[in-house]
Specification:
Elements: H1 18-22, E1 27-29, H2 35-48, E2 54-57, H3 61-70, E3 75-77, E4 82-85, E5 96-101, H4 107-119, E6 123-127, H5 135-139, H6 142-145, E7 150-155, H7 161-166, E8 173-177, H8 189-196, E9 203-205, H9 211-221
Parallel strand pairs: 1-2, 5-6, 5-7, 7-8, 8-9
Antiparallel strand pairs: 2-4, 3-4
Helix pairs in contact: 2-3, 4-9
Length: 229
């Protein structure tokens, strides 16, 4: 059994053995945590080291500054509300994870997904603004889609894009509903339900705006023998 290092009393109990156990390190979800709590977590990570890349997700500008005060070498991706420590992604192994967005407004969540897959060790690329309102834009990238080993599709509004993509490719599609849309989109519930009801097979759905979860799942799907795990 993998031993655990002591936690931080009253704050957190870091899962420092997760990388050895699962092949992927623990991530720190920043939303809802105080500056003091994040400082304590970042300090323990610095002191214990750890294997793999630790991601700090859903970080505000103030929270990102607090993490970088302790881990100044961490990479900050403000467009994705994400920090990574160490800053350099590991050498890519396995296959290609391709992330698509239906619109430009989906980019923050899609970037979280793309970067999560990259820092978890996959080749990771992003194609933006290829939604169903102009289907020719997607069809113009069909060869890119067919080179991927897993595809993440981030969409709000009606959430139709994952079904379309899944009907064009032979690899799994991770559907990522976003909270983008007018009132009847209900903060992402409408695209979530559309994706859950996809008629195309091979579509798996993560929670609303869960870019990290989508990137992690796609990274696991695209893991290849070169990973050595």
């Amino acid at each position: 059994m993998t031993s655990q290092r002591p936690g931080i009393d009253g704050v957190a109990n870091l899962d420092t053995g997760r990388y050895r156990r699962r092949g992927y390190p623990e991530a720190v979800y920043c939303e809802g945590k105080s500056i003091e709590q994040l400082t304590a977590i970042a300090t323990q990570l610095r002191e214990t080291g750890g294997a793999g890349t630790t991601l700090f997700t859903r970080a505000s500008a103030e929270q990102a500054a607090a993490v970088r005060a302790v881990l100044p070498e961490a990479a900050e991706h403000a467009d994705a509300r994400l920090l990574a420590w160490p800053a350099e992604p590991p050498p890519p192994t396995g296959g290609l994870v391709l992330t698509l967005t239906a619109g430009t407004s989906d980019l923050p969540v899609a970037r979280e997904a793309q970067l999560s897959a990259r820092y978890l060790g996959r080749r990771s690329e992003l194609v933006a603004d290829v939604g169903v309102a102009g289907l020719h834009r997607l069809l113009a990238r069909i060869e890119d889609l067919r080179c991927a080993d897993a595809i993440i599709v981030a969409a709000g509004m009606d959430g139709a894009l994952p079904s379309v993509v899944a009907g064009l490719v032979e690899v799994p599609v991770v559907a990522l509903p976003t909270s983008v849309g007018y009132g009847a989109a209900f903060g992402g519930i409408a695209p979530l339900l559309t994706m859950l009801n996809a008629c195309a097979p091979g579509v798996g759905v993560v929670n609303i705006d869960n870019g990290y979860g989508a990137g992690h799942l796609a990274a696991q799907i695209a893991r290849g023998p070169a990973d050595g795990r």
